Amino acid sequence: MALGPRVKPDAKVLVVHSRREQAEELAGIVRGEGYEVVVCTTADEALALLEKPEGYDLVLAELLLPGEQGWELLKHLKEDGRLRYIPVVVLVPEGAQEQGLKALDMGAEDYLCWPLMPRMVMPRVRAMLRIRGLYEDLLFERFGRQQAQRTLQMRRYLTRVMGGSGVVQKLADILDNVVTTDTTVLLEGESGTGKGMLAEVIHRYSKRAEGPFVVINCSAYPETLLASELFGHEKGAFTGAIRRKIGRFEQANGGTIFLDEVGDISPLTQLALLRVIQDRQFERVGGEKTITVDVRIIAATNRPLKELVERGEFREDLFYRLNVVRLELPPLRERPEDIPFLANYFLQMYTERLGKPIYGFSRQALGRLMAYQWPGNVRELRNVVEHAVLMCHEDVIGEQHLPPRLLEEQVRVGAGRLAEHERQLIASTLEEVGWNKYKAAKLLGISRSTLYSKIARYGLKPSGGTGESVQNTTQQG
User: Fold this and answer.
1) What structural domains does the chain harbor?
2) Residues 6 or more apart whose Cβ sits within 8 Å of residue 233
3) What would the DSSP string read from start to end of 164-221?
4) 14 has which bridge partners?
5) Alpha-carbon torsion 234, 235, 236, 242, what sign?
6) Element (DSSP H or E) covering residue 378
7) Are strands 296-301 and 110-114 parallel, antiparallel or unpaired?
8) Please, which of 28, 82, 200, 221 could form a disulfide with 226 given CB 3.0 to 4.6 Å?
9) Is the pLDDT of residue 476 over 70?
10) pLDDT reading at 363 higher than 70
């Protein structure tokens, strides 16, 4: 699995933990990516360091410091007018996720569970440093205070509901320029990748957020009914039309309409939709009065529209009207680092809905989630988490609470898949640090002897390098 690009290369990170060896373990992971890290063991030390003029870009702090110091440190950071723009990730023991959720309510940006899974650390750190960059933009009013605040909130929410991978952050980079406009957006990707969720994010942080967000699945209606659903109809327009009906476009006036599976609509409805996009005008079925609406259009499809245009199944002029800004959501199997974010988001959603005090996943259960291929993408993950919450009568979800198919899949092909993931992770890490084995071992959270054995097992070599360069690098590492 490839590591994400370094964010804010000059960032300075403060690690606060009562046990120095654990603080240094976390610091080593972050330093391995080239960031400057300072370690301290008390809240007083941390506050003294934070008062210095050079400043910090991120604080990773143990929440349960002796004598409530961790809570006091978080409270101070989020109430101080100058320090509150430093993102805070609190560290809690596994099984104490309830404390992490409470910290989020107090203003912390995220939390990590101890003992750490090293590969989970840097996606969080990178996401937080992106947020720090937005805080700085806010302070300097680069884009105006109101717009920067909206962008900051959008990124924080997007990270929470979709993950912190580089893919998601690239989407956020594009949305920074799109969300506050009325530009039409086209979302493409496999079924279940979260296109509806992303559409909701765009609406939530747009200037139309106070208006309605209307969703229609275009594939759910036959051609004879879809026009009526979109544009409404007059009484007597067809058999069964016993009263006037307001269509989805009228319902969305002043807000956003989300046209899901837009690639499935018929040529006749495509023509009517083209007119609405161009002029924001239409007539109800069976009516003569022209209706004008003020709506933003977001469309989504699991069938690439360009290919449909080439096959003559979709109007080219409508395609270009929809394809002003195109965002592609990759399948979940291509961004496994987002799985913990999404799993915890769905866990919180279902524990609140079902009133169950479940605070997280065991390491074994999370490992199963990470190894599974997710043919149903985010939608399948959501259903799996709901199933696990229903089956769980403990405070942590274990392997036994997951659907059998995840366990069967693991038995069948899990070992080979995990080995391939490990090979890719080790290879990409070595390339990232220029084959410095000391840095690579630190970043991966393993010993150098273990790293050497895995390099030999997988037959790894520097890309484009020679045996001599490997030897020199080994001596330096």
Assistant:
1) 12-171 (3.40.50.2300), 184-330 (3.40.50.300), 334-476 (1.10.8.60)
2) 241, 244, 245, 247, 284, 285, 286, 287
3) SSHHHHHHHHHHHHHTTS---EEEE-STTSSHHHHHHHHHHTSTTTTS-EEEEEGGGS
4) 38, 59
5) positive
6) helix 377-391
7) unpaired
8) 221
9) no
10) yes
> How large is the C-alpha radius of gyration of the chain?
25
Nearest alpha-carbon partner for 103 in 70, 69, 57, 67 = 70
- Tokens 């208006």 found at: 211
- Indicate if the pLDDT at residue 81 is higher than 80: no
Q: What is the mean pLDDT of the chain?
A: 86
Q: Judge if the upstream peptide bond of residue 115 is cis by omega within 30 degrees of 0.
A: yes
Contact 153, 161 (CB under 8 A): no
pLDDT in tens, 105-135: 999 999 998 888 888 899 889 999 988 888 7
Enumerate helices (H) and strands (E) in the chain, giving the number of each: 21, 14
Q: List, in sequence order, the alpha helices (H) in 43-192.
A: 43-50, 69-79, 97-105, 118-140, 145-162, 166-178
Of 447, 350, 452, 455, the C-alpha closest to 401 is 350
State the alpha helices, DSSP H only, in 433-466. 437-444, 448-458
* Amino acid 141: pLDDT: 57
